[in-house]
């Protein structure tokens, strides 16, 4: 940016108002094309595909956390020289969107059937156009640096083409089939859902023990059930073939109570002999385990439920009742006929629909399935071999547990909104034809065709998101350059729904992994640790937080103090603290800008550095190294906390204060050099902070002399191995400790700030020059009128107040200002504190378990702490003895 075009201090308001800054800057970024990416052979690619939020969705705290994490990574990699692409988009969300459209039609007095399928789809697309962009605009409020020119939708033309191609290809390879299988049926949504979409809730219920008698009454079997209404669909009783209790009656029959139907007794090793009576009622049409037993033993299927959760005509007199109503009536009838042996209270996990939370009814239904095992095996191997890694690593076990036990995936849904299954049935001969484009007639007999009514599971299409969004099945430059993508950031709740399916489809369609890293974050909970939900009324609107505090404050609060993969509690005080940090950064930056003067800011003259300059440059270099390492390791919380601590404490509270005497002094060369250091440290600090707090850092950085047009395309600071002021930095830590101690003593003794006192520093020959160099800072920051540096205590008033630090002892002749008894009391407290520290360190180092397990570095640190504590204690004890003489 031209220096003459930069907004200067004259245009820098006295206070920072995010509501004014954020919208302006985001508009500038987007209109300038700063988010856009093109394949660039000169740079390494870094691509993230956004977990597409539902078009029905509204920004919630989970989205805010997820998008913040992704944006941090994208902005960091962009500044680190990568060609970064963050692909945005939305998911069509079959069930959720259909519910919304049905509700809209109902308000107009219409049903799906009234408008027909084509009419319904018109209404659905209109609804999507009107409301589907809402969450996209909300993501912008958060500062998400997505490439909006590449925004995708799971039902757009390109994504739909990919979905249909994969379906047809899998079908022709025998990996997709249609058949009568047990499925999870939601009677409210009136559709099948996959195992991953079933949420289990612990519910109190009963265990009903029911007797089944032989036709002639010569024997009976008692079975227990939590769903007595399913007795209407019983087609067998199963016992273990090795159970001697039932050996004589295997192959015989019993009568279903009330119903009067005769059913066989079959043998199957699924039945556990030592559980209950060792006999299990088998209802193949309404229980997944019973379905498998039925297949093995040849039992018939008898579906007695309707799609909306009622009893059908096979239920006899119970026809028309809901399953819940039927249970009550049927249990009473069992009591009356004497078949109910006993009832026990029983709490168990009940499957519910993830969308509407209705209890799931397992039912046999003709559905489309993916034969998943052959897709799962290479997907398991990719993680086992380390080609894909989970962060935190423990979540790979969650992935394995699901994948090792995965079952065929039901992918058909009895809905209209979604990708319609490309299967066509002949009206004449019944032939099934599966093709990417609709055939004009039956290839077998020439008869007319009609298409399957069902649509595909939403997760089928979103499973192809990493490559369909990049142009597949076309061989685009984007696909060639950006695939495999780099990092997938999402919550642990999507490991089954989405992550596993993307890995399977990526390896199948692309013959390559879809990403190399899965970064798992936790859930945002309320202050009490509860899940945010409408029912609890504890949800917090991120947009409200942004309106009040700004997006930067929200982003910072969601990142700081929370490790990867762990849930966090949303605390308003953290957002307030983040806002205070913004104000601190802004005010410090404004101070720097106000003191730049008229002369151009030059380069730092390394020959003119004093101890404070060397310390701040050394610390900045260390923070650059550590922050970079933390982000690379996905420890984003550690990175932002280090940046926060450096900017707030070391730069703002210490270095700026230390710089003031030279800024206000008469030495123009020193003044110019301090300005150069301030700008350098501020500029790099803003770069380090930018991925976490993009708006305020852009606002400040673009005002600085020598800055680029935008901070997001500036170079990420790099660690300088040649810059090493470790000795000076260590000494500076001792000086700051001395200054803090002097301030604390003065405060304890109620010495007014205006009262200055002479300070004598007693130090070692090695530290003498450093202490002499630090003298002006004791004047400025510790209330010293004058400072002497000595190598012994000769001539020091024995009643002088002292403080101890690792660079020496500071003495102040404050006899007239303090009570000697109080000073001794204070020193006794300090003695006890350091005695406690010596005891703690000794205890740790004498612990054999600690020595055996702790890394050498940690042990060395503890030994150093012990030596320091002993030294401090020795000095304080000596000081107490001096004062008592």
Account of the 3D structure:
This protein is of the alpha/beta class. It contains 26 helices and 29 strands. The protein is elongated. The relative contact order is 0.09. The mean pLDDT is 91.
Structural key phrases:
elongated; 17% strand; alpha/beta; four-stranded mixed beta sheet
Model regions low in confidence, pLDDT < 50 over at least 5 residues: none
Q: What would the average pLDDT be, to the nearest integer? A: 91
Number of strands: 29
> Strand fraction band?
15-25%
The coarse overall form would be elongated
Strand order of the largest sheet: 6-5-14-16
SS summary, helix count: 26
Share of residues in helices: 40-55%
| Gyration radius, in Å | 36 Å
Decide which structural class fits the backbone: alpha/beta
Cα-to-Cα separation, first versus last residue: 69 Å
Report the biggest beta sheet as strand number plus sense, adding barrel if it closes: 4 strands, antiparallel
Report a brief summary of the structure.
It is built from 26 helices and 29 strands. The mean pLDDT is 91.
List the helices and strands and how they pair.
Blueprint lengths: L17 H14 L13 E5 L11 H19 L3 E5 L1 E2 L3 H14 L4 H20 L2 H8 L10 E2 L3 H16 L3 E11 L4 E3 L4 E16 L6 E6 L10 E4 L13 E3 L6 E6 L11 E4 L5 H10 L25 H15 L2 E14 L7 E10 L2 H12 L4 E3 L3 H10 L4 E2 L1 E2 L9 E4 L5 E3 L14 E3 L3 E2 L1 H5 L2 H4 L8 H6 L4 E5 L2 H17 L6 E5 L2 E2 L16 H8 L1 H9 L8 E2 L2 H23 L16 H22 L3 H28 L4 H22 L4 H8 L24 H23 L8 E6 L2 H17 L2 E7 L10 E5 L2 E5 L7 H26 L2 H6 L2 H29 L1
Parallel strand pairs: 1-2, 3-4, 9-11, 15-23, 22-23, 24-25, 26-27
Antiparallel strand pairs: 5-6, 5-14, 7-8, 7-13, 9-12, 10-11, 14-16, 17-21, 18-19, 18-20, 26-29, 28-29
Helix pairs in contact: 1-21, 2-16, 3-4, 9-10, 9-14, 15-16, 16-17, 17-19, 18-19, 18-20, 18-22, 19-20, 20-21, 22-23, 24-26
């Amino acid at each position: 940016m031209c220096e003459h075009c930069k907004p200067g201090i004259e245009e820098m308001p006295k206070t920072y108002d995010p509501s004014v800054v954020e919208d302006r800057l985001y508009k500038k970024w987007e209109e300038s094309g700063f988010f856009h990416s093109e394949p660039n052979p000169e740079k390494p690619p870094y691509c993230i595909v956004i977990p597409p939020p539902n078009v029905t969705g509204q920004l919630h705290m989970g989205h805010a956390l997820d998008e913040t994490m992704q944006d941090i990574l994208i902005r960091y990699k962009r500044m680190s020289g990568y060609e970064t692409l963050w692909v945005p988009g939305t998911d069509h969300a079959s069930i959720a969107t259909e519910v919304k459209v049905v509700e809209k039609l109902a308000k107009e007095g219409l049903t799906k059937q009234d408008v027909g399928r084509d009419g319904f789809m018109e209404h659905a697309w209109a609804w999507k156009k009107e409301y589907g962009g809402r969450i996209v605009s909300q993501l912008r409020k958060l500062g998400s640096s997505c490439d909006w020119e590449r925004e995708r939708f799971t039902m757009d033309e390109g994504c739909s083409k990919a979905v249909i191609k994969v379906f047809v290809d899998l079908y022709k390879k025998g990996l997709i089939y249609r058949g009568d299988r047990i499925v999870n049926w939601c009677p409210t949504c009136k559709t099948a859902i996959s195992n991953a979409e079933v949420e289990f809730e612990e519910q109190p219920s009963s265990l009903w023990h029911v007797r089944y008698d032989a036709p002639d009454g010569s024997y009976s079997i008692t079975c227990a059930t939590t769903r007595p209404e399913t007795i209407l669909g019983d087609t067998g009783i199963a016992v273990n073939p090795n159970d001697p209790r039932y050996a004589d009656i295997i192959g015989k029959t019993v009568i279903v109570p009330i119903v009067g139907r005769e059913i066989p007794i079959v043998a199957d090793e699924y039945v556990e002999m030592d559980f209950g009576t060792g006999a299990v009622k088998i209802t193949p049409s309404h229980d997944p385990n019973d379905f498998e037993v039925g297949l093995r033993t040849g039992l018939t299927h008898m579906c007695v439920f309707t799609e909306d959760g009622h009893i059908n005509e096979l239920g006899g007199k119970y026809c028309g009742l809901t399953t819940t109503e039927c249970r009550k009536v049927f249990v009473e009838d069992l009591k009356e006929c004497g078949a109910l042996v006993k009832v026990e209270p029983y709490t168990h996990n009940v499957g519910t629909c993830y969308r509407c939370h209705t209890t799931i009814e397992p039912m046999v239904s003709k559905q489309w399935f993916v034969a998943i095992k052959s897709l799962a095996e290479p997907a398991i191997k990719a993680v086992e071999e380390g080609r894909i890694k989970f962060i935190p690593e423990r979540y790979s076990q969650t992935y394995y547990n699901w994948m090792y036990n995965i079952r065929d995936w039901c992918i058909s849904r009895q809905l209209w909104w979604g990708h319609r299954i490309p299967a066509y049935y002949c009206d004449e001969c019944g032939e099934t034809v599966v093709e990417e484009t609709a055939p004009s007639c039956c290839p077998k007999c020439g008869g007319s065709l009609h298409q399957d009514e069902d649509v595909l599971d939403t997760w089928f299409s979103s499973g192809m998101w990493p490559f369909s969004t990049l142009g597949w099945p076309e061989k685009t430059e984007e696909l060639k350059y950006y695939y495999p993508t780099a990092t997938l950031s999402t919550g642990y709740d999507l490991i089954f729904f989405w992550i596993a399916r993307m890995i399977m489809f990526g390896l199948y369609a692309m013959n390559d992994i879809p990403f190399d890293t899965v970064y798992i974050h936790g859930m945002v909970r309320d202050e009490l640790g509860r899940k945010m939900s409408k029912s609890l009324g504890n949800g917090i609107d991120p947009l409200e937080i942004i309106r009040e505090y700004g997006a930067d404050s929200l982003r910072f609060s969601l990142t700081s103090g929370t490790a990867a993969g762990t849930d966090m509690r949303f605390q308003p005080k953290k957002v307030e603290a983040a806002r205070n940090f913004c104000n601190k950064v802004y005010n410090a930056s404004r101070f720097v800008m106000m003191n730049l003067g008229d002369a151009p800011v030059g380069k730092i003259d390394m020959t003119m550095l004093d101890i404070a300059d060397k310390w701040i440059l050394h610390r900045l270099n260390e923070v650059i190294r550590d922050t970079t390492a933390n982000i690379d390791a996905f420890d984003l919380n550690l990175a932002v906390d280090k940046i926060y601590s450096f900017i707030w404490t070391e730069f703002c509270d210490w270095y700026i204060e230390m710089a003031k005497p030279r800024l206000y002094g008469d030495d123009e060369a020193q003044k110019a050099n301090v300005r150069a250091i301030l700008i350098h440290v501020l500029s790099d600090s803003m770069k380090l902070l930018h991925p976490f707090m993009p708006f305020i850092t852009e606002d400040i950085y673009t005002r600085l002399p020598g800055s680029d047009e935008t901070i997001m395309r500036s170079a990420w600071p790099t660690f300088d191995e040649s810059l090493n002021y470790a000795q000076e930095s260590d000494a500076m830590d001792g000086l700051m400790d001395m200054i803090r101690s002097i301030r604390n003593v003065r405060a304890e003794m109620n010495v007014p700030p205006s009262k200055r006192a002479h300070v004598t520093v007693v130090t070692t020959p090695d530290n003498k020059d450093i202490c002499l160099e630090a003298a002006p800072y004791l004047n400025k920051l510790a209330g010293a009128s004058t400072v002497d540096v000595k190598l012994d205590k000769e001539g020091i008033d024995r009643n002088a107040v002292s403080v101890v630090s690792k660079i020496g002892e500071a003495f102040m002749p404050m006899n007239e200002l303090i009570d000697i008894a109080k000073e001794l009391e204070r020193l006794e407290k300090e003695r006890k504190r350091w005695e406690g520290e010596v005891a703690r360190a000794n205890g740790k180092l004498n612990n054999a378990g600690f020595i055996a397990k702790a890394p050498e570095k940690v042990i060395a640190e503890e030994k150093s702490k012990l030596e320091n504590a002993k030294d401090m204690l020795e000095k304080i004890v000596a000081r107490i003895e001096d004062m008592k003489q």
